[in-house]
Design a protein that fits this description.
Structural class: alpha/beta
Order of helices and strands: HHHHHHEHEHEHEEH
Number of helices: 10
Strand content: 5-15%
Mean pLDDT: 82
Strand order of the largest sheet: 2-1-3-5-4
Largest sheet: 5 strands, mixed
Length: 227
């Protein structure tokens, strides 16, 4: 608002209008080109976003770019209107399509829904090594093994709990689990919130496996120099 009085004289300059039009065109090219590349090919950035963020925003993102391109053709002499149309389309698309998809992927609700649909009706769910928000969103009957306990201790307790009954299922993720997975016996629930999630029963855990303590793997080796 402080610079609002300067906006009109600034837009009266041809150089400013051209700069704004070039910036609009640059964003349009990124949106349309990136979306087409992601939809028609397999670029690394698209795979990374899908795996780590759990979203594929290319349809609505490309549509926003096309709206921006149309605005540039319609208002090529009034660059500020083309820029405004692009920003309006971008934030409207994000509010209607982008944010709901990201919220579902990051909040854990979608993950918990997939886990519940993969379990039989008489199953009991437990969570280990999960973010605090997932404990708040989990069913009231779900078990946990101490949110503040180290991950390997949570998993050790969870493995004992799994072996206690055939109806017990565990939702978890992470490096402490990797060495304990028995082949493809677990259910791979994919990536959510930058984590790779698994739904497990006791038969998916290697017998007598000890979860990795990441704190020990990260600690520097002690000095072995002689006195």
């Amino acid at each position: 608002l402080a610079f609002a009085p300067l906006l009109r004289p600034l837009l009266a300059r041809q150089a400013a209008r051209r700069t704004l039009l070039v910036l609009t065109g640059f964003l349009v090219a990124i949106m349309v080109g990136g979306s087409l590349w992601a939809l028609l090919g397999t670029p690394r950035f698209a795979e990374r976003i899908a795996l780590e963020q759990g979203v594929r925003p290319w349809y609505w993102f490309g549509a926003v770019g096309l709206i921006g391109a149309a605005a540039m053709l319609l208002w090529h002499r009034r660059a500020h209107l083309a820029w405004g149309a692009l920003m309006l389309a971008l934030w409207t698309g994000y509010g209607l399509f982008g944010y709901p998809a990201m919220n579902d992927a990051r909040s854990g609700r979608g993950l918990l829904a997939r886990a519940e649909s993969a379990m039989p009706a008489d199953a009991t769910l437990a969570l280990a090594n999960v973010p605090e928000q997932m404990l708040l969103q989990a069913p009231e009957t779900a078990f946990a093994f101490g949110f503040k306990r180290p991950a390997h201790e949570q998993l050790t307790a969870a493995f004992d709990w799994l072996r206690a009954a055939s109806t017990h299922w565990l939702l978890t993720h992470g490096e402490p689990l990797d060495a304990c997975l028995d082949g493809d016996r677990g259910i791979d629930l994919g990536w959510s919130n930058r984590r790779h999630w698994y739904l497990l029963q006791a038969h998916a855990i290697v017998t007598d496996c000890v979860p990795i303590d990441r704190r020990q793997t990260l600690d520097p080796a002690p000095d072995e120099t002689d006195d």
